[in-house]
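Annex B. Sample input.
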Amino acid sequence: MVPSWTETLLEAGVEVVGRTRFCIHPPSSVVRVGGTKDWKLDRVRSLKADLLVLDREENPLFMSEDSGLPVWASHIRSLENVAPALRDLSGVLGCGLLRDWSARWEAVAAAPASDGFPGIVEWGRRPSSEVRSVVYVIWRDPWMAVGPETFIGSVLAKTGYPVFGFAEKYPVVDFADFDRSSTLLLFSSEPYPFLRKREGLAELGFPYAFVDGESFSWFGVRALRFLESALFGRCSSL
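Annex B, continued. Sample output.
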């Protein structure tokens, strides 16, 4: 029930019998059972799965209570949580490849932060002076961003972005509160499709860019590839 884990398990060769409609990587014929917050329970039960894979940040509690299945649930709050989760899941499933990937995640977590601006798909307006803070925007109407105490926030910090220090995980923001000369806005491709709906962004008056949201938020193999490329300058094979 977690797109990041669906992709990771399929690439590890684990038999996945059900997925959410948001589990779009890799393309497959695996049965869709609903979303990350809702599902068709009769369809879930009909698959007779051996294990229900959840994440506490992405899935509601009723999924673990109502399924009637054995449950494994991660709690990914930062990139440092991924390696232990992979090790644990490897033990549950008997999959050595997941353990190998956990070692690579440990190397990523231990590496010093990179510099530069990795993950940018397209610039809207380049900064004309030093960037002192970054606001990673995930929604509009209302405008919402991510705080440092999130998986995305930890990836931003590891890749050298000076993420703004919001106290909330996903705060509603007022752009009038930020210095336009030193703040860079990063518009994520998901969950709001800023790459397709970019009207009015230039009028905000900030330097801004569009980023691939999957690289910053899909923990598992996708973020691992992105971080190894950003930190070690290589495109990893998994």
